[in-house]
Design a protein that fits this description.
33% of the residues lie in helices and 29% in strands. The chain has 218 residues and is an alpha/beta fold. The longest helix has 17 residues.
Length: 218
């Protein structure tokens, strides 16, 4: 797997268990760059009750960032909403939190730290995750036609109050490929409820992947 060195996102452990998660991510080549001058988001991982009580204390030991985001690795944890915490994210109860965290960081790297072909940036991403939400990432690799991957994505239930990001990666910009993929994608995008928040982005990266990031407010 290609290494993912996060420049604008700082991973912070609120407890020993979360530090083990960060260490395991690093062993797989996913890590935040130490002393990066371009950090915009502090992501605090919380795995225990003790960690939940330590969030503010832990943040005080790190440099300030544009936003503080808490990710709970245990859906049963109770995280207090504080004025300096922009977002509290958890994963679906039946999911593998470590794998979901990996997918979240990979998606962040592709959508925020790489250059999008269309207008999508950190501000858009922050709108999607603002507040307390349950998140999930559904990704499918495709070789030629995006239609097969799109059929898998269509099976994901869309909620009226949900926030969504449809992200596509392409090896390189191809005008013919774009012309073929846009009609079925447009039909799918029109199916989202008016009250939902929907964003769309295309990034140069490999392999060619179609991903749907869902963020459901609690």
């Amino acid at each position: 797997m290609e290494k993912i060195a996060l420049e604008s996102l700082r991973l912070i452990a609120a407890d020993y268990v979360s530090q083990q998660v960060i260490d395991e991510l690093r062993s797989e080549g996913i890590y935040s760059i130490k002393n990066s001058p371009n950090v915009h988001v502090n992501v605090v991982l919380v795995s225990t009750d003790k960690g939940a009580d330590n969030i503010n204390e832990i943040l005080e030991t790190h440099a300030c960032a544009r936003r503080n985001v808490v990710i709970t690795m245990n859906p049963e944890l109770s995280i207090k909403e504080e004025s300096d915490i922009f977002s509290i994210l958890s994963f679906q109860a039946d999911s593998n939190p470590y794998l979901e965290l990996k997918k979240f960081l990979q998606l962040y790297n592709i959508c925020i730290e790489k250059h999008s072909m269309i207008c999508f940036d950190l501000s858009d991403f922050l709108i999607i995750i603002r507040g307390r939400n349950v998140i999930s990432i559904h990704s499918y690799v495709y070789k030629k036609d995006i239609t097969d991957a799109l059929e898998h994505i269509k099976s994901i239930y869309i909620k009226e109050n949900g926030r969504y990001l449809l992200a596509i990666t392409m090896v390189a910009y191809d005008d013919n490929e774009m012309k073929k993929m846009m009609p079925p994608l447009s039909d799918y995008m029109e199916s989202f409820p008016d009250k939902s928040i929907f964003n769309f982005t295309i990034t140069k990266a490999t392999p060619k992947t179609l991903s749907l990031f869902t963020s459901i407010p609690l």
